[in-house]
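In response to reviewer comment 3 from the previous cycle, which asked for concrete evidence that the modeling workflow produces usable outputs, we include below a single protein chain processed end to end. The sequence was submitted unchanged, and the resulting structure tokens are shown without manual editing.
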Amino acid sequence: MVLLHSEKIPLGSAAVEFNLPSADGKVYSLGDFQSSKLLLVMFICNHCPYVQAVEDRFIQLQRDYAAKGLGMAGICSNDPTDYPDDLPKNLLKRWKEKDYRFPYLIDESQEVAKSYGAVCTPEFYLFDSDRNLAYHGQLDDNWKDPSKVTHHTLREVIEKLLAGGKAPESQTPSMGCSIKWKK
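The workflow returned the following structure tokens.
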């Protein structure tokens, strides 16, 4: 397991178009989220212990903010060759077991991850209503232990943006396992 931190992406960058199949067989593009005030694009996977540690927290974000205008998409860009947990059939199984209420997309070509500049899982990109990057950073300040979180960073930014405010200029990177690139 290689620990990486997300790379700095200029705030205000436009969301990159995607057209990806979901674990349940539907196909989604950026336009499918146009009615959402905010869009959270997450690069996640099944096997990563960092994702597993925060999974219930990002699922709860969807539960808490979907009705207020937060759209979400999880994207798995890993090559599942050496990581069978990330095979499409296992993504579907996890999606059902955890009752994700957002699409779990499969980036088989890995082009979407590359176009976003994603390097790790989990990695969070929050876009405003114009689909410009408002936040690219950590979910909160303690990936290991939810009881020790003192700053619910992403949640706080979502609330600020939904209330008409601005995201902070200073943002702490996400950290997690490297995306498993094809050889």
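The chain has four helices and ten strands. We consider this sufficient to address the reviewer's concern, and the full set will be provided in the supplementary archive.
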